Amino acid sequence: MSTNLSERSNDNESGLQGGWRESDGNRMKGCKTNSRVSAVMEAVQFSEVELHQERIENGVKQEDKNTLEAKKSEKNQRSVPFYKLFCFADWLDYVLMAVGTIGACAHGAAIPVFFIFFGRLIDAFGSNYNNPSFMAKEVSKYALCFVYLGLVVLGAAWLEVACWMQSGERQSARMRMKYLKAMLSQDVGYFDTDTTTGEIVNSISSDTILVQDAISEKAGNYIHYMARFFAGFAVGFSSVWQLTLVTLAVVPAIALAGGLYAVVMVGLTSRSQKAYTKAGEIAEEAISQIRTVYSFVGEAKAREQYSKALEMTMELGKRGGLAKGLGVGTTYGLLFGAWALLLWYAGTLVRHGITNGGQAFTTILNVVISGIALGQAAPNLTAFGKAKAAGYNILEMINRTPAIDRNNVEGRILENLQGQIVFQHVSFSYPSRPDVLIFQDFCLTILAGKTVAIVGSSGSGKSTVVSLIERFYDPVSGAVLLDGENIKNLQLRWLRGQIGLVNQEPALFATSLLENILYGKENAGMEEVEAAATAANAHHFIERLPDGYHTQVGERGVQLSGGQKQRIAIARAMLKNPTILLLDEATSALDASSEHTVQEALDRLMIGRTTVVVAHRLSTVRNVDMIAVLNQGKVVEIGTHNQLISKETGAYATLVRLQETAPSRQLDGAAHSRRMSRGSLSQRNFSFHSGMASENDSGSLCMDTERSQQLMSMHKPSTIRLLKLNFPEWHVAVLGSLGAIMAGVETPLFALAISQVLVIFYFPDKEYIKNEVRKYALIFSGATVVTILIYLLQHYFFGIMGERLTKRVREKMFAAILENEVGWFDYEENNSSLVSSRLASDATLVRAAVGDRMSTIIQNIALTVTSFIISFSLEWHVTLVILACFPLMIGAAIGEQLFLKGFGGNLGKAYSRASMVAGEAVGNIRTVAAFSAEEKVLDLFCRELDLPKKRTLVLGQLSGFGYGISQFFMFSSYGLALWYSSTLVRDNKTSFGNVIKAFMVLIMTAFGIAETLALAPDIVKGSRALSFIFEILDRKTAINPDDPRAQEVVSIKGEIELRHVEFAYPARPDVMVFHDLSLKVHAGRSLALVGTSGSGKSSVISLIARFYDPLRGKVMVDGKDIKRLKLRSLRRHIGLVQQEPALFATTIYNNILYGKDGATEAEIVEAAKAANAHNFISALPSGYQTEVGERGVQLSGGQKQRVAIARAVLKDPAILLLDEATSALDAESEKVVQGALDHLMRGRTTVVVAHRLSTVRNADTIAVLQEGLIIEQGRHLELMNKVNGAYVQLVSMQQQQQVR
Question: Where on the tree of life does the source sit, at the highest rank (predicted)?
Fold first, then answer.
């Protein structure tokens, strides 16, 4: 990005002290003029006192920073009230939630109602025992009521599930939209200091899923169980109020236990989310910069950092398991205590004739079921706690007021905009470094309709001028005026609509070429688009593509070369037809021929417009109306080219002389084709100016969806395989499973005990009743303590097991991702944001699958087995009847799962694609802001959410009906079993006691099965996650870095040979880049590769670094096929410097240290000095400990490149690959850095791509590539003697540019 914070940078060589003392009186109003400037381009040398003072100030500010970090950490612990999570609902959502609530309440109340009928049925058994015929008739009547109740439950369950799922999806979609809208509305400074792309992707995927989970099915489940709780007490009060009243005495204790549990879980969840977010940022950064990681053999470092970031989650997972075990165990333990009290008191009431056995039993059952419902509602509090913590982050962003509000419509709109821009006594520092002033009392006037070029050394403040005009930032003091009006008073959206911006690093979006150009003017017709593309010299190459303007460009435009991306960006600006044009190195990415054409188009575009050109290349500024020379944030000279060049000792003249010593900016237009290794068109389309036609432009850039589906179908989810990954925790699993089994066995034993008490109530001997009831009351009292220990055992150890598995899965997935060849990342489905998002979300689903669901399943299996053993031993006839009905219930559940799998499909993938759109927008926030493209991004984001919204509607209906029908079969089965039981009792084949005991035990079994079936949606989600996980883990990389058959490389001389190489990028196998290419570089010699854009130069670099393997032929080092060498050991001897430097979000020191493990501080400083980086680093307040920000955003382009070069210098490689290594540097910096590189190249095998002429001239061999073939080869003088040779034509073309 041009603003790159480019000169945010404070390339500070930056004196940053003192005012802007020099300017032209005609151009710079209100400022003093000083013409005495000569050595203005030299770096400012700070005195020892000044440096000492700055570092003291920095220490104070570092303390302030630490304080802010502490406050931020404290803020992350906070959560929002639960009701605020529903603030995204509209009237239809409220209707859906109301209907869903009615369904949940009806469904929840069904069990207490069932026990009313059941109590009456017991009375029919007991009171009519001597009249078998009448008893059978009464029992039949109430059994039929069960069927009617089942029909009601069918409808209620349907409404509950369908309405809550649909409402949750609708609200979460709206929440995602508002979150992204709020994020895109923030001022650019916010992204410098307060967030990263990784945080945005994490929030918009993980956080929103947590909230959606809480406000959809979990909310319905909670209401369902709470309705059961209250309905049970209502029935209890209407039956035997004394018993119910006694039970209420323990409710506060139960509520207190649940409340404490929820509070603890919210705190732990907040901290865990923070730890996972940090790990996600590390993963996203490594994956997005995979070539840098590979070339510096940084896989182990990335894995180590990722694993270290996950360590904190382990401890938090243990605490979470402990809290859950104590919370759930205490809840159930208190229920057993309540049972002890209830049994004792019920016995007293029965013995005193206040109630009978049936009434007491009905009341107890309702109270108990209500208590169990309260326990079942408690786990939802975990989801609510997580959602409240996640919701805080989301709502905080949505409610945040940006410092610069693009949506403010109160600003003025100028009717007749002329375009005069005035910087009036501007002082400015970037929000990320408020202590470092970029401008102080800066003045500059740009007349309407004129073109002003801003030139100067890297870090002098050039791009800051662009940023202030775009109002990405506001000055600390002073004003930027447009036609005499402070731009703060203008409507921001209107202002940016009048400005066209073309950055040095073009930002494209993962959509079609047409959509990218339409960012300039949304409603433009196709003719306008084609005209803009033609003017930008882009129409020709677009038309050659198979899909033309509908070709997908991939993440960040990765499918295009740098020159192609820049032409699309220029076409986008041309289509906008702005009054003010900002060109920040707009033609830097183009080859000589393309630049000539595009520069002419830009010259036409600039006519009549106010134009600000930020440039290093003199060919772009000679014809402008005025040139302003900046140095260290000061305008030190201003005038026309002729005026300034006449000042022999002036700043501009010094720049000109520096560039004359390096007369060619570049011989090759693939300036930005660094991403070519990801399958860019430039490397596969060859030259757009050659006679070769469409063969090079054929093929599809779209991802192969059939391939993706085939890959997914190959990896069927396997829970067994997942559990094998957990094998190291087998002892933990045994303990957790033991707890789950005991929890499961406890339930049917509990049912057996209470049914035995019911039978005791009908005994005529009151003393016997008293003794027996006392015995069972004591048993339940003891069970209180035992229950707490059981659930603690279950949840604590399953929590550890799940957390360790999650960490292991994440580490294995991340390691497997880093094993893949670069070609794997070329495919759209494997872009960095998507893979990072799935790495986070799928591993989280695995954690839930083991930590929560597995323990529940084991518990319910133990419950079912125990229940059937008990019931068969008591009354096998009745048990067989119920067992015969089980296929209906299980069949309904299987149908529900099939429906879920068939229609649940790729919802996770759909959310990931939406996350990718969001991450890309945030990564290109300056382009989004400059083109006021927020609505366009939101529209694309909304389209990505349409699929899950539509599927959820169908899914909710089907799963709701499936769940309802299974409940209907359950109640109908009870009716059938009880009717059949009455016939057995009538025929004296069994006793009343055995029937009741068996039936009660089987009821508990049904509840366990129902609970397991309720997990079906989560199980389906987990299955889809497993598919992706095992797809990653099972994939065999095409280039194995750990091939055991390969030879370890200890040292190399550096001889390189490409022998009869045929090559095509994996993403476009139909387009050949090389066909029978042979090339040789002798050890210690240098080879320069030159040629037009797309001729295959960077492909040579990619093959030598073995980012790809050739289809045929060999790439050899020291006479050995590199396929037979251990890849990582080979790469340790290869240094790579790319044109787009990839830095990591750490300190400058650590970024340089990345080049060599264990390097000393002295070595790092020497490497920085060799790369001309030491001076600017030392001038920074924190020196080498300065944080560079995400992708080095806190540094200018030149500073980033010098740090990258220092990293390569520190590596001290035998083979050096320079891919436009000095293209981001100004002339002065380049001269020093080029000298350092020349020194570095001595005695090393060096391959230089698209370097400036000074480097090409000094190369031992120059190879001219065209259309993937070497058409000329030799030394500079040899090639210059070929009058009509290709090399001579390139040199001639560049010389023509320089004299323009």
Answer: Eukaryota
